[in-house]
Design brief:
The complex is a heterodimer of chains A (about 325) and B (about 190). With about 325 residues, chain A is mainly β. Chain A has helices at about 1-20, 25-40, 120-125, 310-315; strands spanning about 45-50, 55-65, 70-75, 80-85, 90-95, 100-105, 125-130, 135, 140-150, 155-160, 165-175, 180-190, 210, 215, 230, 240-245, 255-260, 265-270, 280-285, 290-295, 300-305, 320. Helix content of chain A is about 15%, strand content about 45%. In chain B, helix 1 (about 1-10) crosses helix 3, helix 3 packs antiparallel against helix 4 and helix 6 (about 95-105) packs parallel to helix 8. Chain B has about 190 residues and is mainly alpha-helical. Classes of the chains: A mainly beta (about 325), B mainly alpha (about 190). At the A-B interface, helix 2, strand 1, strand 2, strand 3 and strand 4 of A face helix 2, helix 3, helix 4, strand 1 and helix 5 of B. Strand 19 of chain A pairs antiparallel with strand 1 (about 80) of chain B, so a sheet runs across the interface.
Chain lengths: ~325, ~190
């Protein structure tokens, strides 16, 4: 009897700690903490990444100093591909193609970066719920579910390291609750210091063919030269980027327009069609990323985004050339 | 030519008003296009953007960059299969047709999407006819599925990632897409979503 009596409060205590609920107002706090951690702390870990029933393991080393971030992402199985991000440069090392592709990041990006999301805006198109706290990669993590209110974007289930704020696990969820894409850290360290050597590629890159991004000129391009408009966008999507860009893969400058709801974004790339130029017609998919291409007169447009097929198609079909 | 080269440098600096017209001229004039490309490489070299890679032989880079060989990120991208598009098209799904298309799309991962009207027609015909039509579609459109297209898509994706403010909300995901799935996913047939 005494036993029973004693165990009741004890049981209540346990259930409180297991189901510890986070108040709704904490959503923005956790998203901001997550954003801050991904840029502003050192981490070194191994994770698995999966889409279409395939898994692959990768290592990420992220270091931050007063000059900015340095990051190296390495595929641990298969090709040994690497992506190194340093300052405003992204270098993709593709041993399987014996090539290296160097591209530039957005020129106006600031360091440390500002938290880009506004919870009031996001709440118009997503619902937020906290789930049960659990362990990921040996760390206590809070679980945050982001559920879209319509079919035009994917949901997220996020597991965020309670202590550091790093995103440890993410499920991208489709409209039938299927997992479209996911990653999960299996091991993570937060070292105070990371040897620069570890952020350099060990491969024999100098023997590879190098492709360099030729130019980014985003300041001068807005305005009159932009002669494209998008007539149908899902609710909540607003213009983000407009620029002309010379891309490694394209002969002609590419016009790039981007729209975002804060969590999901869609890019539209417009290229002048060259003789023999080959372009995507119709849909293509890769995990959560969808692309849709079509011709408009002498131009070809490609819509790319981490959104469902229905969204890239809707946006792509509504692009119009505006005669000045 | 001097007039052209002057114009090209203004164009590069974004100082030309009728940009579109000049890009059109560029497209038609291979010589000018080559000059345009060379300008960019020279400018990058001057800005020191190439010297970030001290081991890189610039002359080699110039000649390589002028080659039209695309870098192939493949096989990252997968074509949307007819079955997937049928799901998207909603009411079109006729049980018999689904079976046929499912088998076909399993056999050919890189099946190309015929538009839904083709599927609608196919679905209304007999099973044999459906097979013929779909095979025909996949055969003809498959030729268009070019390595250059896939390379371009992946290039777009890198740009999309870099310019998207929301990239970091997805943690390590955006670049995992570039790093993952080499060869194995192309060799093996896989189920379509």
């Amino acid at each position: 009897m005494i036993n029973k009596f004693l165990s009741l409060p004890f049981f209540l205590l346990i259930s409180f700690s297991v189901f510890a609920d986070h108040p709704k107002e904490d959503v923005e706090k956790w998203l901001a903490k997550m954003h801050h951690a991904s840029h502003m702390i050192n981490y070194d870990g191994t994770f698995v990444y999966g889409q279409n029933n395939e898994m692959t393991s990768m290592q990420i080393i992220h270091s931050v100093g007063k000059d900015g971030e340095l990051e190296r992402l390495i595929s641990l199985d298969g090709s040994g591909r690497e992506v190194i991000r340093s300052g405003d440069t992204v270098t993709c090392i593709l041993p399987d193609q014996k090539s290296v592709v160097v591209d530039k990041t957005r020129p106006d990006s600031e360091f440390p970066p500002k938290f880009p999301l506004k919870i009031e805006q996001l709440s118009k198109v997503y619902d937020f719920h906290f789930g049960k706290d659990s362990m990921v990669a040996g760390q206590k993590a809070i679980k945050l579910m982001i559920v879209p209110k319509d079919q035009y974007r994917y949901g997220h289930t996020l597991w965020v390291d309670m202590k550091t704020g790093l995103l440890l696990k993410d499920h991208l969820v489709g409209k039938n609750n299927e997992i479209v894409e996911q990653f999960m850290f299996t091991q993570i360290n937060y070292p105070e210091f990371i040897d620069k050597e570890r952020l350099l590629s060990k491969g024999e890159n100098k023997k590879y063919t190098w492709y360099n991004a030729k130019d980014i000129d985003s300041k001068k391009d807005a305005g009159e030269s932009m002669s494209w408009k998008v007539e149908s966008l899902p609710p909540g999507f607003v213009p983000d980027v407009k620029r002309h860009h010379n891309m490694t893969m394209s002969d002609m400058p590419v016009e790039h327009l981007m729209f975002s709801d804060g969590l999901s974004s869609v890019s539209i790339f417009v290229e002048k069609q060259m003789q023999n130029s080959k372009n995507l017609i119709g849909g293509s998919t890769m995990g959560a990323v969808n692309a849709y291409g079509r011709n408009i007169g002498n131009y070809h447009i490609t819509v790319v985004g981490e959104v469902p097929h229905v969204t890239v198609k809707m946006v792509g079909d509504s692009v119009k050339h505006v005669d000045n | 030519m001097n007039d052209k080269t002057d114009k090209l440098s203004s164009l590069m600096d974004g100082e030309v008003r009728d940009q579109d017209a000049w890009f059109e001229r560029l497209a038609k004039d291979p010589e000018m296009l080559q000059t345009w490309k060379r300008y960019h490489i020279v400018r990058d070299a001057m800005k020191g953007q190439l010297s970030e890679h001290p081991k890189l032989d610039i002359s080699a880079a110039v000649s390589e960059a002028l080659k039209d060989e695309p870098v192939i990120f493949t096989p990252v991208w997968k074509r949307l299969s007819p079955r997937y598009l049928m799901k998207q098209a909603g009411g079109l799904a006729v049980a018999a047709a689904v079976g046929t298309i499912a088998v076909l799309s399993l056999q050919q991962t890189q099946l190309v999407s015929p538009d839904s009207s083709v599927i609608a027609k196919a679905a209304n015909n007999t099973v044999t006819l459906q097979q013929d039509k779909i095979r025909q579609v996949s055969f003809t459109t498959r030729e268009k599925l070019d390595a250059a297209v896939e390379a371009k898509l992946s290039g777009y994706l890198v740009n999309h990632n870099e310019f998207s403010k929301s990239t970091r909300v997805s943690g390590v995901m955006p670049y995992s897409r570039i790093v993952s799935f080499v060869s194995s996913s192309a060799e093996k047939p896989q189920n379509d979503k």
